[in-house]
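Task: sequence design from structure.
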């Protein structure tokens, strides 16, 4: 699998796994509007995943998006640990969405200029989607952080729990170096400053503290995952693996 295919696989796996996590909120969100909002964000991510996995398959022997989503084992996935984290409470989801959507917006804003026409077209569409995703997370962070004493405490706890997983988003590896050199992708490390500036501004407005850097997760892009991904894949892949070749 060449570098572009591996790059698309990593970004596609991030979107696919997080879409599944957000889908777990359907009928469980604190408001009916949030059922719809989180469901729609998940559908946007799923659309991104479909395009990226299809492109990865076309570049590496013709495996379909369904093959890549449902017939790979855990060690073959290339998603970061952040998206694998269990659903948790609503504050945990808001914190994760703040981190991830800020990163995605910075990423896709750069990928609009990708020399790969599929990635460039995807990024042009995704920028509009992810702008909403980030705004949604920002508004909830402000609402919870600058709300009651209890909502403030719980939102700060959620940020503290999520923060050790943020650093992996900005870790350069051989794949990202190769695609950046070809103009296909961008170095994750080049996005850090922009994201940190956004987070600092939002958390200041929300009267929340920027968590201190701590030990962080590594290895997701190389197939080294937390125990959480295995359980998620068992649920997500069950029907497809139980009925191989079935169509609907």
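Answer:
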């Amino acid at each position: 699998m060449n570098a572009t295919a591996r790059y698309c696989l990593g970004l596609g796996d991030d979107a696919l796994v997080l879409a599944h996590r957000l889908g777990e909120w359907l009928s469980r969100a604190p408001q009916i509007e949030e059922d719809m909002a989180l469901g729609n964000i998940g559908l946007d991510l799923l659309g991104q995943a479909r395009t990226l996995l299809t492109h990865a398959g076309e570049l590496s022997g013709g495996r379909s998006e369904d093959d890549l989503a449902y017939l790979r084992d855990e060690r073959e996935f290339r998603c970061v640990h952040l998206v694998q984290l269990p659903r948790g409470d609503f504050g945990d989801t808001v914190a994760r969405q703040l981190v991830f959507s800020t990163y995605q917006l910075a990423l896709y804003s750069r990928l609009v200029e990708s020399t790969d026409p599929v990635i460039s077209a995807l990024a042009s569409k995704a920028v509009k989607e992810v702008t909403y995703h980030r705004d949604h997370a920002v508004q909830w962070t402000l609402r919870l952080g600058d709300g009651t004493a209890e909502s403030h405490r719980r939102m700060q706890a959620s940020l503290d729990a999520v923060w050790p997983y943020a650093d992996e988003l900005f870790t350069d590896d051989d794949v990202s170096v190769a695609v950046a050199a070809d103009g296909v992708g961008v170095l994750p490390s080049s996005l850090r400053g922009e994201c940190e500036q956004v987070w600092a501004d939002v958390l200041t407005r929300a009267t929340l503290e920027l968590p201190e850097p701590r030990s962080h997760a590594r290895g997701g892009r190389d197939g080294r995952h937390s125990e959480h991904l295995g359980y998620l894949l068992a649920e997500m892949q069950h029907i497809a693996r139980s009925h191989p070749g079935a169509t609907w």
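Residues 3-242 form a domain with the Ferritin fold (CATH 1.20.1260.10).
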